[in-house]
Amino acid sequence: MAGLQDPDVVDLVAQDADGRYLVVMVEERPWGADPDQPRQLREKINAYAGFVLDGELARRHPEIGLGADVRIQLNCPQQPEGEIAAIAQHAAAQLGRLGIGFAVRVLPAKPGAR
After folding, report:
1. H helices of 5-112, where?
2. From the CB of residue 76, how many other CB atoms can be counted at a distance below 10 Å?
3. pLDDT range class, residue 111, cuts 50, 70, 90
4. Sheet holding 70-76, edge to edge
């Protein structure tokens, strides 16, 4: 996965059990591991919003279609705090106004990961 370091790559497109389409960004590093993480997160969120809003998601995945229920999701190893949490909250508010959901999903650490 490209992760936050590459805002031009969509890490994953999926559909959840409720039929909502997810455009997922993956951050495997712990928060604070890189001083550029806040900037990288903002860039990735903006890129994903553009991907959804400009119709590129629907073009690449015609089964989704324009106007589908879409959520941008940040998968990460720990709950965001401080600046990262503020970025996530701001994104949720701004994207919500555009009809796009935003959520953070904290995933358990992979076996053998530090």
Report:
1. 37-53, 56-60, 82-97
2. 23
3. low
4. 12-15, 21-26, 70-76, 101-106
